[in-house]
Design goal:
With about 220 residues, this protein is mostly helical. About 55% of the residues lie in helices and about 0% in strands. Helix 5 packs across helix 6 (about 140-155). Mean pLDDT is about 85; it is low at about 1-10 and about 25-50.
Length: about 220
């Protein structure tokens, strides 16, 4: 009789052990899925390890296609290692903004493209131009991006699409703020969002990197 009681107690213990194990497994799965959903569905990334993106993945190199040789500028000319050359390159593009006035279809196209990008790390304007095409930000970076946009529209309007012009502006913006854009690219990557130049630098994902520590390194003056 005592053997039967002991056997019964032993069986109950086994069932309890299995139940506890199942509960632990379920809690682990719930926690794991919660982290995945939080990280990849737009939740906060404060407690999530952000996959790093190296500078080599986003920094453009060499002479820009078509306009680089004409303006005698290279992506390599804008870097923290040579501030004078960087300022000279920025000034070349800035002078185009100062000396070029757009009208008609060119102005409409300019507004359509350039209102999509800002220099938010220098000024708080929604974009580097107002909706009428006038300058909205007075920093050197904004002058350079506006000047390049005007040049590509007036000199190579049939060779560059709107998105391609916006991408070129974005490449230079990355060069102006390399550290911040490395961080932003990492955040975009962690959320499964494209890290191409339009996604990375236009107003499309503006501010998505807020809350993450990043280098405040800037090339060129505000």
């Amino acid at each position: 009789m005592s053997n039967q009681k002991n056997s019964k107690k032993f069986k109950i213990g086994k069932y309890e052990s299995v139940a506890i194990t199942l509960v632990i497994v379920m809690l682990f799965m719930i926690g794991y899925n919660s982290v995945k959903i939080n990280a990849f569905s737009g939740g906060s990334t404060d407690n999530f390890i952000i996959p790093s993106v190296s500078a080599s993945e986003i920094i453009p190199l060499g002479v820009p296609n078509i306009y680089g040789e004409e303006l005698e500028i290279s992506y390599n000319d804008v870097s923290p290692s040579d501030p004078r050359l960087a300022d000279k390159t920025i000034e070349i593009m800035s002078n185009i903004d100062r000396s070029t006035t757009l009208e008609g279809d060119d102005l409409d196209r300019y507004i359509r493209i350039v209102t999509q990008i800002s220099c938010e790390y220098c000024c708080g304007a929604e974009s580097i131009i107002f909706n009428d095409g006038k300058s909205a930000c007075g920093c050197a970076h904004s002058y350079a991006m506006r000047g390049l946009a005007k040049y590509l529209i007036t000199e190579h309007g049939n060779e560059f699409t709107d998105d391609e012009i916006l991408m070129e502006l974005g490449k230079w913006k990355v060069l102006f703020f390399p550290g911040i854009h490395e961080t932003k690219a990492s955040v975009l990557k962690s959320k499964g969002i494209d890290t191409g130049y339009i996604s990375l630098t236009s107003n499309q994902n503006r501010g998505i990197e807020k809350g993450q520590s990043s280098s405040s390194e800037m090339v060129g003056g505000c």
